Amino acid sequence: MRVALVCPYSLGVPGGVQAQVTGLARALQRLGHQVEVLAPGPFQGGGAAEGLAVRDLGRAVLVPANGSRSPVAPFPWAGWRALSALARGGFDVVHLHEPLVPGPSSAVLRRFGGAPLVATFHRAGASPAYRLWGLGLRGPARRLAVACAVSPEAAATAAAVVGGEYRILPNGVCLDAYERAEPRPAPGPTVAFVGRHEARKGLDVLLAAYDRLPEGTRLWVASSGPQTGRLKAMSAGRAGIEWLGPVTDEEKASLLKGAHVVCAPARGGESFGLVLLEAMAAGTPVVASDIPGFASVAGPGRCALLVPPGDPEALARALTLVLQDRELAEQLRLAGLARAKELSMDSLARRYLAVYEEAAGRAQV
User: Fold this and answer.
1) Contacts of residue 282, Cβ cutoff 8 Å, sequence gap at least 6
2) How many angstroms separate the CA atoms of 35 and 21, rounded?
3) Which of 348, 322, 343, 209 is nearest to 273 (CA)?
4) pLDDT tens digits for 228-255?
5) Which of 10, 35, 126, 150 could lock 71 by a disulfide, CB 3.0 to 4.6 Å apart?
């Protein structure tokens, strides 16, 4: 099968949707299918898209969205390039990620009339601007052969904006990247945080909890964002906090695997919580906020300790418990590994192939 994956976000900027698109492309290739990724740039080869057939749709810009800043290309030429590539590509199915984001995905949703369209909705929570933009896409969205969402929260958001019914296909994780990763050396009990430094990710809550952790505990803080300067000032003078800055996928796997516990203290706005799944794949216990997107990753088993969002004291108690109770930490580690295998990218690719075949079959009727 020949598949096009359309991503509205630049592959030159790390992000959850970008990781899902490139990971799915590789998994589909391993299963023997031809895949091309269409996304904004800048793209210079290597990195997350190394070894993939990628069509650069033009330079992206950072636009505020959903409490973050997204690298999108909301320009006519980006959509035109995507439509031209699809018209010439001879694809059996076109898979749109985040089709309501202004740019190539929404342009294809509006105007492409060739191969059947499948879509995956990732976002949880709709701002007034997002709802207003979605009004113009209610009609085109009915053309989707199959609509999917990464969680019930993402499905509810999409349904509120454009209507319709959604298959829940959770995000996947590339297990081999974590199996082959070398753990980053940890000189003592270590907590790791990976996420953009912005209000909804709750890093300030973790920093407030840090002083309540056992003496000698270290904190690795990866990535960056608009609040980095303020958060560094907030923790100035505290020994044991290491600011790592932006990390590559390989470095992220290494630090997740080397930490004793991974903390995801987000306040909300998370449709899924990919970092939880990545930590589980690395075999590291997880402490996270009890928000719907994270609870869907934790699943019915005890795969993570969940605490009320925005509560430094509850967060500190949970982190301390995992750091000091080896039996509990091992239970979380094993349950997390099992959950990661259940949600592997290869498993997700096989599920999407069944969706693609269904969509292609409908187009032939």
Assistant:
1) 178, 181, 253, 256, 257, 262
2) 11
3) 343
4) 999 999 888 888 999 999 998 899 999 9
5) 10
Say which residue the tokens 């088993």 belong to. Answer: 301
Domain 175-342 belongs in CATH node 3.40.50.2300: no
Q: Which residue has the tokens 């709802």?
A: 131
Identical fold between 2-172+344-364 and 175-342: yes
The full DSSP string for 56-74 is: EEEE-EEEEETTEEEEE--
**Cα–Cα distance measured from residue 99 to residue 93, given in angstroms and rounded to the nearest whole number:** 15
| Domain 2-172+344-364 belongs in CATH node 3.40.50.2000 | yes
* pLDDT, tens only, 294-340: 998 997 778 999 999 999 999 999 999 999 999 999 999 999 999 99
Structure tokens at 257: 């695997």
Domain range annotation of the chain: 2-172+344-364, 175-342
DSSP 215: T
Helix (H) or strand (E) holding 59: strand 53-59
Alpha-carbon gap, residue 308 to 294, rounded angstroms = 12
Q: If you write DSSP's letter for every residue of 240-275 in order, what string do you get?
A: TEEEEES--HHHHHHHHHHSSEEEE---S--SS-HH
